[in-house]
């Protein structure tokens, strides 16, 4: 079960209440879960995605370890341009799509 990180910016208080029920808030708007299963991660993202589609305020970024992805990291975003990790001659970069 991989580490999962969610970063929120300018979102309603409901996100904080929900995310702190399943993750640790290590800094304002930064939530981590050291052993979140993929099923729980998908359900958490489904909830915050639904809220974001309804409220359309702020942004969220979720990152987790994915051995099949470039750099072994996967990124999901809401309220920001989609991003992906690319390998530029051994240096990992984040590319906005």
UniProtKB/TrEMBL annotation:
InterPro entries found in the cross-reference section: CRISPR-assoc_prot_Cas2_sub
Any Pfam family hit: Cas_Cas2CT1978
NCBIfam families: cas_CT1978 (TIGR01873)
Name assigned to this protein: Type I-E CRISPR-associated endoribonuclease Cas2
Organism of origin: Aquicoccus porphyridii
Lineage, highest ranks first: Bacteria, Pseudomonadati, Pseudomonadota, Alphaproteobacteria, Rhodobacterales
Gene symbol of the encoding locus: cas2e
């Amino acid at each position: 079960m991989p580490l999962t990180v969610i970063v929120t910016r300018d979102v309603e208080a409901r996100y904080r209440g929900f995310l702190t029920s399943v993750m640790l808030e290590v800094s304002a708007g930064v939530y981590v879960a050291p052993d979140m299963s993929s099923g729980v991660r998908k359900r958490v993202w489904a909830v915050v995605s639904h809220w974001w589609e309804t409220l359309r305020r702020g942004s969220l970024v979720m990152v987790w370890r994915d051995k099949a992805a470039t750099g072994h990291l996967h990124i999901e975003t809401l309220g920001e341009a989609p991003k992906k990790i690319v390998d530029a001659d051994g240096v990992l970069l984040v590319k906005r799509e």
